[in-house]
Protein backbone atom coordinates (compact mmCIF):
# COMPACT_ATOMS: atom_id res chain seq x y z
CA UNK A 1 0.00 0.00 0.00
CA UNK A 2 1.34 3.40 -0.94
CA UNK A 3 1.07 5.96 1.82
CA UNK A 4 0.79 9.51 0.64
CA UNK A 5 0.83 13.00 2.05
CA UNK A 6 -1.44 15.87 1.09
CA UNK A 7 0.08 19.03 -0.28
CA UNK A 8 -3.08 21.06 -0.56
CA UNK A 9 -5.31 18.84 -2.72
CA UNK A 10 -2.44 16.90 -4.34
CA UNK A 11 -1.45 13.47 -3.04
CA UNK A 12 2.09 12.20 -3.57
CA UNK A 13 3.92 9.05 -2.43
CA UNK A 14 5.83 9.05 0.86
CA UNK A 15 9.64 9.26 0.75
CA UNK A 16 12.26 7.61 2.94
CA UNK A 17 13.16 9.93 5.88
CA UNK A 18 16.90 9.68 5.11
CA UNK A 19 16.27 10.77 1.54
CA UNK A 20 14.15 13.64 2.87
CA UNK A 21 17.03 14.71 5.12
CA UNK A 22 19.47 14.63 2.20
CA UNK A 23 17.02 16.51 -0.02
CA UNK A 24 16.42 19.19 2.61
CA UNK A 25 20.15 19.72 3.14
CA UNK A 26 20.75 19.83 -0.62
CA UNK A 27 18.05 22.47 -1.14
CA UNK A 28 19.19 24.69 1.75
CA UNK A 29 22.94 24.45 1.09
CA UNK A 30 22.53 24.48 -2.69
CA UNK A 31 20.29 27.54 -2.55
CA UNK A 32 22.75 29.45 -0.37
CA UNK A 33 26.04 28.31 -1.89
CA UNK A 34 25.29 27.93 -5.60
CA UNK A 35 22.11 29.87 -6.32
CA UNK A 36 23.13 32.70 -3.94
CA UNK A 37 19.60 32.82 -2.49
CA UNK A 38 18.87 34.52 0.81
CA UNK A 39 19.11 31.94 3.65
CA UNK A 40 15.45 32.56 4.55
CA UNK A 41 14.29 31.64 1.04
CA UNK A 42 16.45 28.52 1.00
CA UNK A 43 15.09 27.41 4.39
CA UNK A 44 11.49 27.99 3.31
CA UNK A 45 12.01 26.05 0.07
CA UNK A 46 13.61 23.21 2.03
CA UNK A 47 10.71 23.20 4.49
CA UNK A 48 8.13 22.97 1.70
CA UNK A 49 10.03 20.16 -0.01
CA UNK A 50 10.50 18.10 3.16
CA UNK A 51 7.01 18.83 4.46
CA UNK A 52 5.36 18.06 1.14
CA UNK A 53 7.16 14.74 0.70
CA UNK A 54 6.74 13.50 4.28
CA UNK A 55 4.26 10.60 4.36
CA UNK A 56 1.07 10.72 6.40
CA UNK A 57 2.24 7.60 8.22
CA UNK A 58 5.43 9.30 9.41
CA UNK A 59 3.50 12.42 10.44
CA UNK A 60 1.06 10.34 12.48
CA UNK A 61 3.86 8.36 14.13
CA UNK A 62 5.71 11.54 15.08
CA UNK A 63 2.64 13.30 16.45
CA UNK A 64 1.46 10.15 18.24
CA UNK A 65 4.80 9.90 20.05
CA UNK A 66 4.61 13.59 20.94
CA UNK A 67 1.03 13.43 22.23
CA UNK A 68 1.59 10.16 24.08
CA UNK A 69 4.72 11.47 25.79
CA UNK A 70 2.97 14.66 26.88
CA UNK A 71 -0.14 12.88 28.18
CA UNK A 72 1.93 10.22 29.94
CA UNK A 73 4.02 12.84 31.75
CA UNK A 74 0.88 14.76 32.71
CA UNK A 75 -0.76 11.60 34.11
CA UNK A 76 2.34 10.63 36.07
CA UNK A 77 2.68 14.14 37.50
CA UNK A 78 -0.98 14.06 38.54
CA UNK A 79 -0.59 10.71 40.31
CA UNK A 80 2.67 11.81 41.97
CA UNK A 81 1.00 14.93 43.37
CA UNK A 82 -1.87 12.83 44.72
CA UNK A 83 0.53 10.36 46.35
CA UNK A 84 2.62 13.15 47.88
CA UNK A 85 -0.52 14.81 49.21
CA UNK A 86 -1.59 11.55 50.87
CA UNK A 87 1.84 11.10 52.48
CA UNK A 88 1.88 14.68 53.72
CA UNK A 89 -1.53 14.24 55.33
CA UNK A 90 -0.28 11.11 57.09
CA UNK A 91 2.90 12.89 58.18
CA UNK A 92 5.14 10.39 56.44
CA UNK A 93 8.48 11.05 54.74
CA UNK A 94 8.93 10.67 51.01
CA UNK A 95 11.30 11.13 48.07
CA UNK A 96 9.69 12.41 44.90
CA UNK A 97 11.93 10.40 42.57
CA UNK A 98 11.10 7.15 44.35
CA UNK A 99 7.39 7.97 44.29
CA UNK A 100 7.62 8.73 40.57
CA UNK A 101 9.27 5.37 39.87
CA UNK A 102 6.65 3.56 41.94
CA UNK A 103 3.76 5.34 40.24
CA UNK A 104 5.11 4.44 36.78
CA UNK A 105 5.32 0.77 37.75
CA UNK A 106 1.84 0.76 39.30
CA UNK A 107 0.12 2.56 36.43
CA UNK A 108 -2.86 0.51 35.30
CA UNK A 109 -2.32 -1.18 31.87
CA UNK A 110 -5.80 -0.11 30.81
CA UNK A 111 -4.85 3.49 31.59
CA UNK A 112 -1.72 3.10 29.44
CA UNK A 113 -3.82 1.74 26.57
CA UNK A 114 -6.23 4.65 26.92
CA UNK A 115 -3.38 7.17 26.78
CA UNK A 116 -2.03 5.45 23.67
CA UNK A 117 -5.40 5.32 21.91
CA UNK A 118 -6.05 8.98 22.71
CA UNK A 119 -2.64 9.88 21.29
CA UNK A 120 -3.39 7.90 18.11
CA UNK A 121 -6.74 9.65 17.69
CA UNK A 122 -5.14 13.08 18.14
CA UNK A 123 -2.36 12.20 15.67
CA UNK A 124 -4.86 11.05 13.03
CA UNK A 125 -6.91 14.20 13.53
CA UNK A 126 -3.78 16.33 13.19
CA UNK A 127 -2.62 14.66 9.97
CA UNK A 128 -6.07 14.97 8.38
CA UNK A 129 -6.68 18.55 9.45
CA UNK A 130 -3.28 20.06 8.66
CA UNK A 131 -1.77 20.46 5.20
CA UNK A 132 1.91 21.04 4.52
CA UNK A 133 1.34 24.79 4.33
CA UNK A 134 -0.52 24.92 7.65
CA UNK A 135 2.19 22.88 9.41
CA UNK A 136 4.93 25.15 8.09
CA UNK A 137 3.10 28.36 8.98
CA UNK A 138 2.29 27.02 12.45
CA UNK A 139 5.90 26.03 13.12
CA UNK A 140 7.15 29.31 11.66
CA UNK A 141 4.80 31.29 13.89
CA UNK A 142 5.90 29.34 16.96
CA UNK A 143 9.56 29.94 16.14
CA UNK A 144 8.99 33.65 15.53
CA UNK A 145 7.27 33.88 18.90
CA UNK A 146 10.41 32.55 20.58
CA UNK A 147 13.35 34.04 18.68
CA UNK A 148 11.77 36.12 15.90
CA UNK A 149 12.97 39.47 17.26
CA UNK A 150 16.55 38.19 17.59
CA UNK A 151 16.56 36.91 14.02
CA UNK A 152 15.02 40.13 12.69
CA UNK A 153 17.65 42.23 14.47
CA UNK A 154 20.40 39.99 13.12
CA UNK A 155 19.07 40.58 9.60
CA UNK A 156 18.99 44.34 10.16
CA UNK A 157 22.48 44.44 11.66
CA UNK A 158 23.87 42.20 8.93
CA UNK A 159 22.39 44.43 6.22
CA UNK A 160 23.75 47.55 7.92
CA UNK A 161 27.21 45.98 8.17
CA UNK A 162 27.20 45.23 4.46
CA UNK A 163 25.68 48.52 3.26
CA UNK A 164 27.84 50.74 5.48
CA UNK A 165 31.09 49.04 4.59
CA UNK A 166 31.65 47.94 8.19
CA UNK A 167 31.63 44.29 7.14
CA UNK A 168 34.43 44.90 4.68
CA UNK A 169 36.46 46.74 7.31
CA UNK A 170 36.05 43.87 9.75
CA UNK A 171 37.09 41.38 7.09
CA UNK A 172 40.11 43.45 6.11
CA UNK A 173 41.22 43.60 9.73
CA UNK A 174 40.75 39.84 10.11
CA UNK A 175 42.58 39.12 6.87
CA UNK A 176 45.40 41.43 7.89
CA UNK A 177 45.69 39.51 11.15
CA UNK A 178 45.63 35.93 9.81
CA UNK A 179 46.15 36.40 6.07
CA UNK A 180 43.87 35.48 3.17
CA UNK A 181 44.95 31.83 3.20
CA UNK A 182 43.68 31.43 6.77
CA UNK A 183 40.40 33.31 6.23
CA UNK A 184 38.40 30.08 6.62
CA UNK A 185 40.09 29.43 9.96
CA UNK A 186 39.21 32.95 11.08
CA UNK A 187 35.53 32.40 10.18
CA UNK A 188 35.44 29.06 11.97
CA UNK A 189 37.07 30.42 15.13
CA UNK A 190 34.99 33.59 15.33
CA UNK A 191 31.76 31.65 14.66
CA UNK A 192 32.67 29.22 17.44
CA UNK A 193 33.16 32.03 19.96
CA UNK A 194 30.08 33.98 18.86
CA UNK A 195 27.99 30.81 18.82
CA UNK A 196 28.28 30.47 22.60
CA UNK A 197 26.05 33.45 23.53
CA UNK A 198 24.18 33.81 20.21
CA UNK A 199 21.65 31.52 18.49
CA UNK A 200 23.18 29.86 15.44
CA UNK A 201 20.49 31.18 13.09
CA UNK A 202 21.13 34.74 14.26
CA UNK A 203 24.88 34.23 14.03
CA UNK A 204 24.56 32.79 10.53
CA UNK A 205 22.47 35.69 9.26
CA UNK A 206 24.84 38.16 10.90
CA UNK A 207 28.03 36.59 9.55
CA UNK A 208 26.90 35.83 5.99
CA UNK A 209 27.56 39.46 4.93
CA UNK A 210 31.13 39.07 6.22
CA UNK A 211 31.52 35.91 4.16
CA UNK A 212 30.19 37.70 1.10
CA UNK A 213 32.52 40.65 1.66
CA UNK A 214 35.50 38.29 1.92
CA UNK A 215 34.46 36.47 -1.22
CA UNK A 216 34.12 39.75 -3.11
CA UNK A 217 37.63 40.63 -2.02
CA UNK A 218 39.46 37.35 -2.71
CA UNK A 219 37.14 36.12 -5.54
CA UNK A 220 37.39 32.46 -4.48
CA UNK A 221 36.55 29.86 -1.80
CA UNK A 222 32.97 31.06 -1.18
CA UNK A 223 31.81 27.52 -0.36
CA UNK A 224 34.79 26.97 1.95
CA UNK A 225 34.04 30.18 3.87
CA UNK A 226 30.37 29.25 4.34
CA UNK A 227 31.23 25.71 5.46
CA UNK A 228 33.82 27.08 7.91
CA UNK A 229 31.22 29.47 9.31
CA UNK A 230 28.64 26.69 9.70
CA UNK A 231 31.19 24.32 11.25
CA UNK A 232 32.26 26.89 13.84
CA UNK A 233 28.74 27.99 14.67
CA UNK A 234 27.30 24.50 15.09
CA UNK A 235 30.03 23.36 17.50
CA UNK A 236 28.29 25.21 20.31
Automatic annotation (TrEMBL):
<keyword id="KW-1003">Cell membrane</keyword>
<protein>
    <submittedName>
        <fullName>Uncharacterized protein</fullName>
    </submittedName>
</protein>
<keyword id="KW-1133">Transmembrane helix</keyword>
<keyword id="KW-0813">Transport</keyword>
<dbReference type="GO" id="GO:0015128">
    <property type="term" value="F:gluconate transmembrane transporter activity"/>
</dbReference>
<keyword id="KW-0472">Membrane</keyword>
<keyword id="KW-0812">Transmembrane</keyword>
<dbReference type="InterPro" id="IPR003474">
    <property type="entry name" value="Glcn_transporter"/>
</dbReference>
<dbReference type="GO" id="GO:0005886">
    <property type="term" value="C:plasma membrane"/>
</dbReference>
<feature type="transmembrane region" description="Helical">
    <location>
        <begin position="182"/>
        <end position="211"/>
    </location>
</feature>
<feature type="transmembrane region" description="Helical">
    <location>
        <begin position="40"/>
        <end position="59"/>
    </location>
</feature>
<feature type="transmembrane region" description="Helical">
    <location>
        <begin position="147"/>
        <end position="167"/>
    </location>
</feature>
<dbReference type="Pfam" id="PF02447">
    <property type="entry name" value="GntP_permease"/>
</dbReference>
<feature type="transmembrane region" description="Helical">
    <location>
        <begin position="12"/>
        <end position="34"/>
    </location>
</feature>
